[in-house]
Structure formats: C-alpha cells, structure tokens
Amino acid sequence: MQHYQQFINGEFVDAQSGKTRNVINPATEEIIASVPDSQPEDADAAVQAARNAFDSGVWSKMYAGDRAKILFRLSGLMRTHFNELVKIEVQNNGKPYREAEFDVDDAANCFEFYAGLATKIHGETMQTPPGNFSYTVREPLGVCAQIVPWNYPLLMAVWKLAPALAAGNCVVLKTSDVTPLSALYLAKLVNEAGFPAGVVNIITGDGPVCGNALTHHPLVDKIAFTGGTVTGKNIMKAAAETMKKVTLELGGKNPAIVFDDCDMDITLDWTLFAAFANSGQVCSAGSRIYVQENIYDSFINKYVEACAKIKIGNGLGEGVNMGPLVSAGHYEKVKNYIAVGKAEGATMLCGGERPAHTPKGYFLQPTVFANTNHNMRIMKEEIFGPVVCIQKFTTEEEAIALANDSQYGLAAGIFTSNITRAQRVLPQLRCGIVWVNYYHPTFNEQPWGGYKQSGTGRELGLYGIEAYLETKQVNINTDSSPVGWYV
User: Fold this and answer.
1) Among the options 144, 210, 262, 283, which is catalytic?
2) 283 given a catalytic annotation
3) 18-31: per-residue pLDDT in tens?
4) Identified catalytic residue from 89, 99, 249, 382
5) What are the tens digits of pLDDT across the range 386-400?
C-alpha cells in the first residue's frame, strides 16, 4: 500500500495533524493507498503559499509565453506517464480502462488548449475625446480555490487548473476524499514541469472540514466547485462574505427526447451511453428518456434487451464497459433510490441488484424504470447511478414541457431524423448543453455549464479562461492643460 502526500508550497508533506485516510478500490473493496486527511490548518497553509506566490508575481508577472511552455511541458509529462495515470484512475475510481484512457488524453489536451490561450489574453482600445487614451487590460484574479468531485477525478481537476494557471492565477485544489490519487500523482508532474513553489497546491481533506475552510478563507479570491447543488448553494453563501467570484457546475436530471422518426439503432446506442457511461455517475447523464408513444413499446423492449449485454466488472478486465459505483456509501444511496422507485409505483424492468459474478465490489446492474411520472422522486432527483426512467409522450409540445419540468438545466439530447424538428426543439430546451443524435461528447474548446439549479458560470472554451480574469479600465491623459473645473 502506497502512502501519498499532499502538495503545498512546492513540497510533498503530510497533514500537520498526522491524520491519514485510506483509499479503497471500489472494484475489490481493498485498501490501495493512504493519503493525508487534510484539516483547516493544511488548507490555510496551502492558501498562504498560493497568496505569497501570487503577490510575489512569480507566476502572474511571468511572460505568458513562458507560462505556456510550462503548461505544455506538464501536458507532455502526462502523456509520458499516460499508463500510470490510467491505471490509477481505474483502481481508485473504478471506471473501465478505455474510459480512463479517454479521460487522461482529454486532460492532457485541456492543458495544451489553455497553454495556447495563455498568450491570447487581449484587452481593447476605444476612441475617446481628444486628450484621452482609454484601454482595458485583463488580469488574473489571484488565489483560486478549486474543489473537484470523485466521478472524473483527474479530468475535473484539469478543467479547473488549466484555465486558472494559463490566466496567471495561483491555485489550491482540493481533491475528493474518495478519489484523490490521480490528482496527487499529477502533483508530482507539476513539480517536475517546473512550476514555481506555491503556484499549484493540492490537498486531500473532505468537504465539510477542508472544503469549508477554503470557501470561508479571506485570502481566497475565487471558488470553482463541481458537485452537488445543495453544497453549491452553501458555497455561494460562504463566498458572499467577501464577495469571492464563484463558478459552480452542479447537478443535473437530464432528458433525452426520442422522436418516432429517429434511427432506432443509433438512438439505442447513444441513449445507453447517455445513461450508463461511468456507471451513470455523470452530472450530464441522460437519466430521463422520453419516447414518442408509437415507438415506445419497441424501444423499451430493445433497450432492456441491450442492458443485459453490458459487460460489468473490474475496469482492468478485458472488454468491461461498466465498472462499480465509487464507494459503499454511494452504492447504498443508489440502492435506496431503486427501493424508492418501486415503492412509488414505477415498474422496474431490469436490474436493481448486484451482478451474480461480482461477490465483492460496489457493482450494480443497469436499472430501467417504466410507468413513471413527474411526481416521483426518481424522476425529479439526481440519482447519480446506473438508473434510467423511460416515459412516453405524444406530441412535440408535450416532450418539451416534460424535458423542462425540472429544477435542473444542465444537458439534454434530441433524437430525430428531421433536422428541422431538432432546430425547432433545441432552442426551447432550458439547459446549457444539447446533443442531437448523440450524447456526452465534450470539447475543450466549447463552454460547459447549465441553467437553473445546475450552476452558474461556464468552464472550458474561451468562457473557461474568462472566469479566471478581471477586467481593468485604464485612462491616460495625453493633454497637459488643466481641467479648469473650479477656476
């Protein structure tokens, strides 16, 4: 069992208290590592290190091209250590190997994308009255506290680190207490890439203790959080104390609308992926599927049949395409939602149990409910597991109303062969991301975020770096004559 250390001020250190916590492989239930149990004093040390680094200008005043070189170097190191990162992600998070491969590659791409943008941060000039010269400059915010979830431990960390660092900020990243290992491995690569001490700090405590210390810290200028909506609301309240900037990427209960003119094979393929990628532990998971009534029976029969063919197992196994849930506690939470769905009167068509061939690990079969309605908790609340609800609709207007009937507004899918219909429906969907005839692909170049209680602000793309910049107006008097206001 390996012991990892947190990364503060360019050094690998244990928690000041000496406390540690064990890290579990969700596929085997075995302890695979120990990490520091970071406490408020560790969070404070990390913030102080980031503050000192920022105020010294060692990173923020570095030529942007030199910052870009270090970011490119880090991306290159990720590719050099690609296999190690993939294996860590599989063993700590439980996701299948090919999913982890995609995550690591996409994370390296994200660093490259923002490394390229580091030298493209531009201000503006404007025509002003004679004797005046006015322009704007973009400046880094300062110290950014970044709190990431357990479902995409490395990728979500990089989504936050890359734009913040490209913009010249210094950061304190708090990993999930459940899946900290890939981010701590990344810290070794950060050190090797040559980042100045204090620019990147990575700590490993839990949310109520360590995360809370960061969100209330007076020296933090911005908080970026991905996770549950309830926690996001609490962070927004804490940020108001000192008017910290906030980016929140929160929950989702996302609809996929299947019209009767869809390509059935393509639609089945993508709606399965929408619901069960990463074992359904995705904020944008398509967990509400609305199917037009005249193809409903055919679709649902084929969908259930396809669920039985999903290969479940340890992510390191050959051909596995669905791994376990991330922890024992989360497994019980999802199982409870399944019990709630049955108690509410929904019909469970398949799944709901541990696969017979997995006596250990937090594995759960793909679970499909039918005969649902919007009064049921399983249709309203984010389950964050391999549980999907399928409901029929009659008209296009009804499908849009059902899709929008949620407190969330992160993502949606439309499946139709009629592009005119797709163009008519998509602007009526109250969400931040829409896919047509597929689901889930994400691009570093495009913004990610949601409407309503799915969060505020955007990550990725140009929007992602904008979230880590301040805008300053500068006015220069080029006329030496006095103002003459009081004379």
Assistant:
1) 283
2) yes
3) 999 999 999 999 99
4) 249
5) 999 999 999 999 999
Instruction: Give me the domains of the chain, ranges plus CATH numbers.
Output: 2-250+454-473 (3.40.605.10), 255-436 (3.40.309.10)
Token pair 């270090």: residue: 70
